[in-house]
């Protein structure tokens, strides 16, 4: 199971385009039925492009359920095996070809989670809810008990089966003293200094903490994992340059406000919180309801990118996913960890200014090609 991990690692910000694995993160904010949203919060979903093994991660109260599924568990029931394989087929249409004539509705990930998690509802209902009288912190999330399960066939029905526990999740990256000096100028915080907001109707800790509070100020928390050393170093370098450059407010980028450390490991980054209701440019860039903003967004991206390049700062993995649209409908460049994503770049100019320019041209086409307005925005 090369593409699945034994920890519950979340969706990487920079998936390797050369890897056959696909990583999907689903929050159940818009899922149905509504009862599910009150009972659990869905975290990372992993599956392999080379097998039918999958891993679901569910958070109930302060418990983390790691559910590992395999087609071999369903071989005693051809019907359930067929249902499982069909769900995997729909989740990854690139690797599993669906019948072209068959019309299906509904979100594939939501459908898979509903199918797999329904047998667990009696298990989840036994967990005590969160204590509303206390304030939860990142330390509580890091120390959440992980319970491993799978699904098996019992009397022709799906039934939860508990697996042996693992030692724990691998979170945080270690840096050499010389590397640590790169980010030592930024404030360092402990996990217990980072508060997690808990909604009144939420029964569990957030599947992946993002919106957090430090000393009463809202921040965006970005998790760091052992394999993220190089990309995190690129982010430290970029954010250090951004801060030193003294760029004005017309240059819209995320900014590093602090670092979270635990036992000598960098657990995550505290970034400026960009309030967004619509998500990234990928979500709304082709939406007719936002067509009047396309030229504005392109101009803002062009201006920000030109300003960064003037100070020898790379964006890196330039793509619509890494442009966040805030509540004022302004476009912010986010994620300075480097890399590239097909089709926005082909990798020949990875982590180079030329790569940023190549991706910008693709972003421009993404926004404007269909309507074919004047291409006033440009990179030199």
From TrEMBL:
Recorded GO terms, molecular function? ATP binding; protein kinase activity
Specify the Protein kinase domain's residue ranges. Answer: 160-380
Instruction: List the transmembrane segments.
Output: none
Task: Tell me one Pfam family matched here.
Answer: Pkinase
Query: InterPro entries per the record?
Result: Kinase-like_dom_sf (IPR011009), Prot_kinase_dom (IPR000719)
- According to UniProt, the name of this protein is Protein kinase domain-containing protein
């Amino acid at each position: 199971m090369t593409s699945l991990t034994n920890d519950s690692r979340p969706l990487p910000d920079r998936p390797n385009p050369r890897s056959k694995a696909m990583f999907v993160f689903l929050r159940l904010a818009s899922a149905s039925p509504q009862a599910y949203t009150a009972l659990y919060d869905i975290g990372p979903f992993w599956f392999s492009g080379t097998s039918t093994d999958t891993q679901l991660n569910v958070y109930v109260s302060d418990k983390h359920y790691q559910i590992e599924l395999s087609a071999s568990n369903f071989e005693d029931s051809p019907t359930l095996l067929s249902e499982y394989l069909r769900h995997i087929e729909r989740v990854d249409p690139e690797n599993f070809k669906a019948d072209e004539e068959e019309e299906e509705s509904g979100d594939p990930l939501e459908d898979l989670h509903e199918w797999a998690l329904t047998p667990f509802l009696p298990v989840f209902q036994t967990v005590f809810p969160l204590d509303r009288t206390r304030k939860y912190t990142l330390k509580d999330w890091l120390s959440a008990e992980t319970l491993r399960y799978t699904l098996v066939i019992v009397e022709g029905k799906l039934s939860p089966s508990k697996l042996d526990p693992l030692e724990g999740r691998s979170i945080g990256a270690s840096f050499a003293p010389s590397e640590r000096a790169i980010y030592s100028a930024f404030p360092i915080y402990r996990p217990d200094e980072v508060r997690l907001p808990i909604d009144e109707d939420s029964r569990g800790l957030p599947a992946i903490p993002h919106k957090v509070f430090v000393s009463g100020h809202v921040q965006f928390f970005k998790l760091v994992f052992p394999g993220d050393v190089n990309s995190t170093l690129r982010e430290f370098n970029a954010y250090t340059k951004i801060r030193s450059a003294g760029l004005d407010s017309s240059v819209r980028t995320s900014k590093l406000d602090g670092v979270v450390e635990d036992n000598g490991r960098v657990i995550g980054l505290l970034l400026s919180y960009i309030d967004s209701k619509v998500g990234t440019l990928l979500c709304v860039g082709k939406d007719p309801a936002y067509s009047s903003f396309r030229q504005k967004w392109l101009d803002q991206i062009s201006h920000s990118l030109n300003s960064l390049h003037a100070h020898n700062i790379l964006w890196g993995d330039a793509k619509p996913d890494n442009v966040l649209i805030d509540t004022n409908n302004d476009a912010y460049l986010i994620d300075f960890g480097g890399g590239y994503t097909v089709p926005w770049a082909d990798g020949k100019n990875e982590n180079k200014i030329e790569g940023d320019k190549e991706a910008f041209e693709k972003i421009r086409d993404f926004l404007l090609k269909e309507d074919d307005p004047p291409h006033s925005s440009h990179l030199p």
